[in-house]
Each structure stands twice: as structure tokens, then as C-alpha cells.
Amino acid sequence: MSFSFFSKLRSSKQQLALIRDDLKRVREEMAAQVGHFAPYVKAYMGEICQTRGKMIRPGLALITAAATGGVKDSHVRFAALLELVHIATLVHDDVLDHAEIRRDRPTPNALWGNELAVLLGDSLLSHAMMMGADLGDISFCKRLSRAVRDVCQGEIEQSTRLFDLEMTKADYFELIQKKTAALFAVAMGGAAYLSGLDEELVASLDRMGSLLGVAYQVYDDVLDMVGSEGAAGKTLHTDAEKGKITLPVLFLLESEHEGVSTEVRDALEHREEVNYARLSHTKAFQEAISRSVDEGLARTEEAREALWLLPLSPARESLTEMTYRLDELMRECCC
Amino acid sequence: MSFSFFSKLRSSKQQLALIRDDLKRVREEMAAQVGHFAPYVKAYMGEICQTRGKMIRPGLALITAAATGGVKDSHVRFAALLELVHIATLVHDDVLDHAEIRRDRPTPNALWGNELAVLLGDSLLSHAMMMGADLGDISFCKRLSRAVRDVCQGEIEQSTRLFDLEMTKADYFELIQKKTAALFAVAMGGAAYLSGLDEELVASLDRMGSLLGVAYQVYDDVLDMVGSEGAAGKTLHTDAEKGKITLPVLFLLESEHEGVSTEVRDALEHREEVNYARLSHTKAFQEAISRSVDEGLARTEEAREALWLLPLSPARESLTEMTYRLDELMRECCC
């Protein structure tokens, strides 16, 4: 994911302006939360929370808030909480991947070792749950803790099913639903819940977040296979290296162009990296990408429908435009 | 801590009988919770949750429940949740310590690697928080999430203050309050809360759990320095090796027997292991142990006072006897 993915999703300056001040408040809230940790923990948390991420989850929560009655203080705290949960998962991911750099900064494990990084991730996660309990009611807490658990389980499923040729498309969608979409869903559904919306509307926005999360992950998986590193702003082809069975891989495996599907299957069976760069000019590859993109586009279309229940507003428009922008980004992968 | 520490704390068979059936129900509940994880996560969780621990936190919750109106289903689920939180911290501890064996079984990191072990710990922790939200109200969730955060922060403080000669006794007590006593406190206070007790009684039992947790940790720290491995049932002198500044170390550092205090200070300054076995026959060492034990005894005495508010019952008696048994164990360290 590029650093500016969220800005990429915002098709106009106006949309950015819509929540720019609120995003600033979220960053201030994150800094304030750092102050609530114990003396010997604060300095580390301060450093960790300086990571300037894409703030996509807080952004989604804020735009949803704006579209459902306006951004309240509770939304700002909720948005900060979401980013802390996301940062906690990144801190643990970096330990697992032995990553030394993230967004041009040394990772916590590189700075202070794995031991402290694991504990800091745990602390951040439990602090975020505490913020959740301070913020909402019991139903809100359930929503939040379930989403966090889903993210963790999705990560486990991913790491245990590398090179797994038994994987089906249904498995893939279930996996990314947990790994990525659960937090998108709670960002939008949770924000709507804090706005006091009725059950049907909350469920509808939760569903929109979920669909957007799935589409976003499909895009990310397609980009890893076709993108140029410069444009994507990150290292690509890492999924192939690790043996992740993503959606385009699944389409390649069922391709009618037998030479290609056999080559991919053989490589995965031997737990070897598939050379997608070499395959990229084949018809099978192009079909696999375009079918994957179609799956993504079907989700964003459904996501737009979930918005119909909301009253028309600049924020609702902004959410709609965001889905169209994601469509554009996905379609660019087919060229 | 020995495998049978909790049985050690129970001075008679009757006390064990008091909650034996309920502890069995807790184990069944833990097994049932395993079934709630995603298909690809279940098998790992099943393996992890087979660890037969001391069940000290569930035991405290159950005895508290028995002393405050009787053990309800919610208490059993709460007790299971507490053990899952505890197991999650052990899973992460084993990753950090590169431990391969715990209680005669291979650790998750030894079985499946660090990556999966970190994620499984995260999953267990967030699942436990979800169970908490399903179990109680918002005040209960706050209590629980704060305790879990305190445990994580205590661990961080410990790992960042190894060989730290700036450490004071106040720092030490604050650290173990978080690392160990927070979960003991929530075990007793949370169980009382689920029994529907009034605020004063809940606070009183929370305080008792906290005092018991502090005394327990003091005992554990003293035992690490004086115990024989056979009797303790675990590897000892690991605190010295790691450079942990525990209570007896702090008393040694302020000892009037200057030869000893200087030797300890010098070793810690050079980040070297102090040879406590060699010092163990000095007057300074014996004083440090007995002063530490006195601090522990002061806590158990205060813990007993917290019980006065409860109506007399076999379960209340059992809690009282438990504190006396801990006194005995601490005094044995002075011989």
C-alpha cells in the first residue's frame, strides 16, 4: 500500500478538506493517549505513534460520522482508537517479518528488540480496548472486540495457508473479510453506532465498510502482482515470495490455459516463488487480473448501494466518490 | 512457580473440594471456547489450552464467587476468560524468552514458530476481551481491559528496568502491582461484581486480590533467590541472571554490611549476574530475605482484613486460610 493510498482514494481536494481538521484532532488525541501510559512506557509509545500512516480507518470513521449527523468528540476518540489498533498489528507484523524499516522510520523491533516490540503491541491493543469501554456501551465493546479478534484470526489463517493449494475463492474471501475488512466494517459501523443511528443503518454502514475492505484488499493483492514499485510506493511481489494464495493466483490456477495453470501449481507444490513477471504477458495472466478486478468492482458497486439509506450530504457524496476512485485504481491494474 | 502452587496455597483437602467441580467446569468452558475460533485456528488453540496450569486466577475467582452468594455460570465463564488471558501472556513470554518447554510440554513457539505464537497470543487476548463484553456490563469491561493493559505495561516496565540501579522499592511495588496483582485483583473484584455485590464490597475484594497478588510476587521473587529447585519445581536464580531488581535485591543494595551491598551494586553496574548462592550465608543476605518476607506478610495481613466485610462462610474461611498458607510458605524462605 502506498503511503498516500487514502489521498489516492479521495478524488478531490474538497473531500480532504471535509475531514482535514478532524484528522488533525485524531492525531492530537493519539498524542494525548500516549500520556495515559505508565511512565516507563510513554516514551516508546510516543515514538511508535509518530508513525504517519495513511489513517484510512480513522478517515473512514470520520467521513461516516460526517455523513451521519456530524463528527463528535466520541468519533475523534474512536478514530484514534482504530489507528492504535492498526498500529498494534503493524508493530507485531514487523516483528514477524523481521522488518527494519516502515514508512522511512526504523521499526520498534529494530529500535528496541523483539521482546519490547511484542509487549508494546500488546499494550497498545489492550489500551485501545480500554478506550473502547470508556467510549461506548456494551454492544459497542462487543462490536470492537470481535473485529480485533477477527483481524488476529485472519492473520493466523493467512500465515498457516501459505502455498496451500486446497484454498478456494470462498476461503480467500473469508480470510480477507477477517484480516482487512473487519476493521473497515467496525470503523464505519462503529462510527454510525456512536452517531446514534438505528440498527438497520448501522448494519448497512458496517456492510459498506466490509465491502470496501474486501475490495481494497483485492486491489492490494492485484497491485502486488502487476504494479510497478515506483507507482505503488512499496515493495511488490512479496505475496508470491511468501506463497500467499491471493485471488489472481486462484484464477490462474483454474485457468483454461493449461500450460500456465500447471506452471503455477507446480511451483506452489514445490513451495517455490512463482515468476509472475514472466507470466504477465500471457493471456491467462491478463484474464486472472481482470477477473479479480471484476470481483473487486462487484463489491464497490454493492458498497455504493449501502449508502442509499443515508440522507444526501457532501460526506455521503465523498463516500460514494471514494468507491469510484477505488474502481479507477483497480481498472488501471488491467492495462 | 511450581506447578502445584495453587494446591500448596490450599491448606486442606476440603478447600480443594469446595471448588473442584467448578474448576472442572472452567476447563470444560475453556474447551468450549476453543470451538468458537475460526476453523484454521481451532486446532492450535486446542493444543494451547490443554496446558494444565495452576489455575490460580480462576481458583481465586471461583472461591470469591462461592464466598459472595455462590458460583454462577457467569463466574465459570469469567474464570475461563482469566485463564485464557493468563495463557496468552505465557504464550508471548515464551516467544520472548525463546522457551521451548513449559510444564513438560513444548511451547507454541517451539511447535509452530514465533510468528504463529505471537498471533495466537493476540487472538487469545482479543477473544478473552470479547468474552468479557458478552459477560458483563460496560463497567465490567473497563475493569477487565484496564487489568490486561496493566499486566502488559508491568511486563514492559520489567523488561526495560533490568540492571537498573535507579529502581526504588516504590517502583518495585508499582511494577508488580501491574505485572501480577492487577489480574489477581480483577479475578476477585470481577467475581464479586458478577455476584452483584455493592461497590464497597467489590472494592474491598479487588483490594484483597491486589494485596494477595503483591504478596505472591514477593514470595516468588524471594523463592527465586533462596529456594532449592527440587522443592520449587522450576528453574531458579533466573531473575539474577536476567538482572531483575527484585525486593531482596533492593534490600541488599541498602544493606549496612557494605561489603555485600558494594559487591551487588558493582555486579549490576557491569550488567553481570550476581552470585547470590555465594552470598546466601552472609548476614546481609539473610536480612534482605527476612525484610522482604516482612513486606509480604504485611500484605497478607491487610488482605485478611479486607475479608471482614463478607459474611462468614466456608469459602470466606478458605480465602483466609489461603493467606495463612502463603505466610507459611514465605516464612519457610527465611530458614
Description of the structure:
Two copies of one chain form a homodimer. With 335 residues, chain A is mostly helical. Helices cover 76% and strands 1% of the residues of chain A. Chain A has helices at 5-9, 13-34, 39-48, 56-67, 73-97, 108-112, 114-135, 138-160, 169-194, 199-226, 229-232, 238-242, 247-253, 258-269, 276-279, 283-306, 314-332; strands at 101-102, 105-106. Chain A has a two-stranded antiparallel sheet. In chain A, a hairpin with a 2-residue loop joins strand 1 (101-102) and strand 2. In chain A, helix 5 packs antiparallel against helix 7, helix 5 (73-97) runs antiparallel to helix 9 and helix 16 packs antiparallel against helix 17. The longest helix of chain A is centred in the middle third of the chain and has 28 residues, at 199-226. Chain A is globular, with a radius of gyration of 20 Å. Chain A starts with a helix and ends with a helix. The model of chain A is unreliable at 1-5 (pLDDT under 50). Chains A and B meet through helix 3, helix 5, helix 7 and helix 8 of A and helix 3, helix 5, helix 7 and helix 8 of B.
